[in-house]
Structure formats: structure tokens, C-alpha cells
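Question:
Now give any protein.
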Amino acid sequence: MNFSVSPEGEEFPLPESDEYAEEFKRVKDLVDKAREEGKEIVVVMGVGFVGAVMAAIIADTKDENGNYSKFVIGCQRPSTRSYWKIPLLNRGQSPVKSEDKEVDEIIKRCVLETKTLVATYTNECLKLADVVVVDIQCDYVKCELGNVRTGEADMAALEASMKIIGENICPDCLVLIETTVAPGTTEFVALPLLKKAFQKRGINSTPLLAHSFERVMPGRDYVASVRDFWRVCAGCTDEARVKVEKFLSEVINTKDYPLTIMDRPIESETAKIVENSYRATILAFLNEWSLFSERNGVDLIKVINAIKMRPTHSNIIFPGPGIGGYCLPKDGGLGYWSYKHILGFEDGDEVFKITPTAIDVNDTRALHVAELTRDALRNMGHYIAGADVLVCGASYRQDVGDTRYSGSEIVVRKLTEMGAEMRVHDPYVDHWYEMENQDTYPASGQSWKRFFRNQDGLAELKIESDFSTAINDIEALILAVPHKEYLNFEPETIVKMAGGPIAVIDCFGMLSDEDIRRYFELGCEVKALGRGHIQQIKKEVQKRKLQQNS
């Protein structure tokens, strides 16, 4: 018997073929009851990072009379990798971890109390739907680190889902693609697949297909980033546009955050790609000035803070060791790929210059952190090979537990390739699946492991929960993520806990000048991204020591 194993290690046997009919009957009985109560039936395809919370938000919807108006079926493919989400959801447990307590609360309420949310593995539930929301992952697979142009959009799961949807839904069912996709996907890939499926069934009407991307943000406002935030949408036809506008107006807070309705789905799709490409670009922009500052005695953190006093430049952001999260590192690649492979143009390399460069810079910036660590250890008379190095922060941004495309991953992998012995601490992360399951996560053959040597041992890397244990006897400390727990480290305490002077590498401007000075006084070496003034502080400390000893 095959099993699907949850992140906590609980095993769930995959359903056998003879169980599907009984499962569909179970779901249909619930739907029949919901219809008697006047509820609209919504199927959410994919109950992962976005789908699970979106399903709960829809299930929590009330009409003008205060009555629950939707019954939601979360549908997940019964694979060994993902099936565990179904039984967890049906217990009222969230399949995604979040710092936002409302995630657990809303899922528990909708499953166990209001009973407006149920999960299943059978695609036959699509036959019962009035609306289908598609949250199937559409990834961009990079074939080389630092060369996004050679990548490919992985649309197989989305295309397979569209075929299944077309084979099952009723003709007047609205299909809403919520996934971030390559521009043109809704109109030129998904719609033809639905039409073909309809034709095989003898249905002559045009499928009601729409697109509306999410802007979900991990962290303490996870639910609000889905429910209480601006949305963009578009329909393939006038009827689809009217239906998607009505549906979104019912399930999200469009009163305070009005909908923006585009003329075509390709405009909605492009809006998401441009939005994230812009963010990626302004982050990558500071990489060259970071290197400039390091080499010319400039503290870029102070420069940025001075610039941000001007309101027009208040969004300037120091990039740290690259950027992460699911969207910014890859979405621009979807636009570049679409231009050639969906829309049919051959001059992509002439048209797209800034967006691919920005992604490549962000993907490789963390390699410089490894160089700084090597140099700091060398200045102390140590070698990087065999050195015990602690990375503080595995997540991609501060105060969240999301490790997807984290810059810290590249730091760890590069230092491992160079022979360092790695440790990791993060107060928000229990399991670093990119390491622990690197042969199968995010999919077989897609781990960033493939870009580096000597990576097999990282499958044994565990997140240290106790900082005092993690720091004991280290030779280098990398402050990789500005979690609030790391912002007030006292140099004396850190050196004492480490057991002596260490190399300290600051990736985010977390150290004050006084902290840097004190580390030097304690015999440590300090390096930092974008902070060239550190060498001047070091010289001042050395000069003072000479004067004291003379």
C-alpha cells in the first residue's frame, strides 16, 4: 500500500480505486444538503499555499442576511506527495503553516462548525460545481543558476487540470484561474483545452473562463492578504467577466479594496508578471551599488536611509542575500518564456533585457555571502574547509517561516560546496524541506542541489531550535535574515556563547557601528554586504589597540 506522509510524519494510505464511488457519494450528499440551503457550490482545485486559505475564505462567505452562502470542496490530487492534505483538512487542520493565527481558526471553523468546507480527492466533484477556482501550481524551472533565459514554464499540471475540468463541469460553471501563469495562458492554452473537452461532450457553448491573480503574503496577515486586498480580474467573454466580478465581490472585501477589471485575461496575467518583475528589478538594482560600497568605504545602509527621507524614494529596499518567496524569483521568467512559446515572437532576447538580468542577479547574489565568509575566516587564519558555520535564518524574509527560494539556501549550498560544516537556526522554521527532501522537493530533479557539488549530506541538515546549542564552538556566524530575534544580539554574549572570537557576516545591515566596533575589539572579524565602512572601523580599533600597547 502506498502512503502519503505529512510534514509531521503521519502516514495516510492512498485511496484504492474501489473507494472513489463511495467518496463521490459522500461529497454529493453534502452538496445536495447545501443546495437545499441555497448555497452556491465552489470547487477549489489545489489546496496548497494559496488554495487552502482561499477555500476557507470562500467557505466563510455570508450573504446580506448573514447566512453562509457558499459550500466549498477542496480537491487535491491523491499523490504520495500531496494526498495528506485531504485528511488533514477534513479534520479541520490547516495543511499550511503560518504565523497568522487566523489561518488555523478559519479552517477549523469552516470544517467543524459551519460545515461549509470539505476536502476530497475525486475529480468527479467537479460535476457538482457552480464555480471552479484553479490554484494548481504553474512553476518556472530554471536549467542554470543565474541564467533565467534557459528555463521552462512547467504547465503540465495546469494543462492536465483544465482537461479534467472540461470533461466534468456543467456548461454554465465559471472557471476562475487564480494561479500566476505565463501571459496568454488563459486565452491561448486553457480556453482551447476547455473548448475541446466541451466539443467532445457535445456542448456547443463557450466555456466561462476568467483569470484573477492572488497577492498572498506569508506572515501574520496571511488571510488578510487574500481577503482584504486589491484584486485584478478579467473574463474571456462578457458573461465570464460578469460572473467573475460577481463572485469575487461576494467572497473578498471589494468594498474597501475595489476590483480592477481588465478587458482581457492576458492583461490580468501581465499585471501580475509586471508587478513582480518590478519588485525584483528594484531589489536587483542595489546589488551593483552594494559591491561599489564594499569596495569604496561606503555604508550603503546609511545611504539608503538618507535617500528614503525623500517620499518619492521611500520604497527603496536593500536586497540582502538575494530575494525569495515563490513569486519574485521566477515570475519574470514566465513573461520571457511566454513571449516566445505562447505568443510566438522570436526577438525575446532583444526585447527582454532588464527583467532577466534582475532575476539572474537576485539568484546569484548570495554567492557573494559565501565569499565574504571565506575572506573573514581567512583574515582570522582559518580555512573555510571544515569550518563550523552557523546561518541565522532559513526563511526568505524576516519574521515568517517560508523557505521557498530563500537566499539562505544558496549561502548554505555554496559554503557546503566549499567544504564548510553547516548549521542553521531559525525561530520560525521547523523543517527545511528544500534540504531535508532535496531529492524530491519541490519536485524530482528540481532542487537547487543540482547547481552545486557535494550536496548529499545536506539531507541530514536540521534546523536547530536552541540557539545556544547552535552557536556553540562555531567559527563563523552569518546573520542572513533580519528576524526580530536577531536584531539585538550583544557582541559580548555572542562571543561568549560561541566560545571565542568568530567571523561575523551581516547580510542585512543588522549590526550598528557600535556592534561592529565591539566585535573587532573582542578579536572577531566582521564582513557585511554593502558596508564598506567596516574596514575603517577595523583600522580605528587596531590603531587604538596599538596606542594602548605602546
